[in-house]
Structure prediction request, 255 residues.
Amino acid sequence: MLASVKGRDRRGAELWRGMGGVALDLLFPPRCPSCRAPVAADGNFCAPCFDTLHLITAPMCECCGIPFPVAAGEDMRCPACLEAPPAFDAARAAMVYDRVSAPLIAALKFQDQWAGLARYAQMMAGSGAALLAECDLIVPVPLHWRRLLKRKYNQAALLAYALAEGAGKPCRLDLLRRAVPTKPQMRLDRKSRLTNVRHAFALSALAPAQLKGKRVLLVDDVVTTGATVDVCAKLLRQGGAARVSVLALARTVKE
Prediction:
């Protein structure tokens, strides 16, 4: 009898949730995160916009994930990774940062437009499936507290939490902190970016105990030169991490 009542209650709750979702769709119809055209479900891209996204697929550098124009064999690395191996073990990104993807990331980063968040996390999970499967915990690239107060949220943390929820992995925001309020990286050249972030991050007092022997997945929204994630990866390794991988929504790619 009790089981029957619980079953009816559960079905009733599901019905109410479904009706609530229909009502919200009527009041606020789902729209494409890019062009705002109506779509079937929240977070979906319309077909024309999805076709313009430059998704990153193989062949690519085994280390940094930069796409190669032609197949170059297994376990191949780009010249940059061969010349100066990064502190992270591997990096992957879902799409190229260009004129199509830049407005999407800007909307997520600065305009409180989270409609595409679940879809972005799915895209990242697909691109970094192997990295996500092997990691023990997920750590987002942190914002300085002043910028966090101004922006109200850290877009890298939103992506990290969405990935963690989907993969059933712990997400830790208390292990890595931004100690210096640096200039935005997008406005700087490579040399300036390296200088800008060299001493920008620090480990928290909790980090050594939590990182020892762990495989960490470092999450950011955009990787440009890789300077930021490289500095963070070095710190995580110093804190005891056995492996550090990087997963981003987008990354810049030279023509």
